[in-house]
Amino acid sequence: MAQPEIGRVVLMPNPAALGSGLAEHVKGQITSSRRWRRDAIILPTQPGGLEPNAEMLRKSLEPGDAIGALCGDGSFWFIVGGLIVSKLANSVPVASLGGGNARDIGRATQRRRGTPAAEFLAQAHAVQSYALRSEITHGQRTSTFFAASYMGWGKTALGAARVNTAEYRNGWRPYQDLRVGTTTLNNPHAFTITDQQGASHRLGDLTVATSSQIAKVGRPPVKPWEKQMWVAPTKPGRLRAWAALGGLLVGSSLPMFGAYHDGPYRFTLESSAPYHFDGETLWPGKNQQIILEPGTEVTVGLDERPYQLLTDVRGAFQRDF
């Protein structure tokens, strides 16, 4: 399979979370590489969600461009979503090259962590990938959320909210991980759902993933290009919670127990539950944590619109350009 013909790399940092230092460093790697030299520009992501980013990409991208995302998973989705909305997702490949707190999609698509950007792009190929899409309905209101790696209800959402605090970002990371892990594991919160078969389940966490890497949580046996979801319900209790969140304490190498799910996964919340998408825990455009109310109906599936993801993982299904 042929590699994509990349003429220019558009580096997209999240200016709210990252200074210009990393973007300039990566740009220097690409423009001065002896093995794989290309033009590169820096185009920061825009606040305000999908539409502003879609409009910017529509105006800025040229034939032969590839995007290098320099951000975490939440901002990565706004880039991919912008490509999808602007109808460029089938022709402009995107790579996760650095930045962010977790960057699960980057770890899932790179064979070796820390590979220089030019070296990674020189050997990368494009795979057709699909984002997670959740439709959350309460009363007459339906909200739609997307994620490139995973979504969660319960303890993973509580953990993500703590990871997003200034105290965590500014502290010594191993100590902060320990605090987040022990506090989240000991939190007594549990919630009840009714699944699509009408069965009731009391859970401590529910995670739906489409990526093999979930920072501080574990490793689901699913890849972004496989067009499958991994559904992992975890019952309440500290031992059960350890199975879902043990990665906070010992790293993200633990397997994640669950099952493959091909079609949409539907359930109704019978009690309130915190929610996150790719570690994002706030309602879009608001400084308010997402807490879903009893009676909320949830449908999770794979978005039908594919995007082109760059990876150097051997055996990934490739697509020619």
Short structural summary:
With 321 residues, the protein is α+β, with helices and mostly antiparallel strands. The protein has helices at 20-32, 50-60, 73-85, 104-109, 117-123, 155-163, 166-170, 173-186, 238-245, 247-250, and strands at residues 8-13, 39-42, 65-70, 94-98, 125-129, 132-138, 141-147, 150-154, 191-195, 200-203, 205-209, 229-234, 259-261, 265-269, 273-277, 291-292, 297-302, 307-311.
Model description:
By secondary structure, the protein is α+β, with helices and mostly antiparallel strands. 28% of the residues lie in helices and 28% in strands. The chain contains ten helices and 18 strands. The strands form four sheets. Strands 7-6-17-14-9-10 form a six-stranded antiparallel sheet. Helix 3 (73-85) links the parallel strand 3 (65-70) and strand 4 (94-98). Helix 2 crosses helix 3, helix 6 packs antiparallel against helix 8 and helix 8 (173-186) packs antiparallel against helix 9. The longest helix has 14 residues, at 173-186. The N and C termini lie close together (10 Å). The model has no long low-confidence stretch (mean pLDDT 84).
Total number of strands: 18
Instruction: Please count the helical segments.
Output: 10
Q: Kindly estimate the percentage of residues that lie in beta strands according to DSSP.
A: 25-35%
Average per-residue pLDDT, rounded, comes to 84
> How far from one another are the termini?
10 Å
Order of helix and strand elements from N to C terminus: EHEHEHEHHEEEEHHHEEEEHHEEEEEE
The shape is globular
Q: Which structural class best describes the helix and strand composition?
A: alpha+beta
Low-confidence stretches: none
Instruction: Give the biggest sheet.
Output: 6 strands, antiparallel
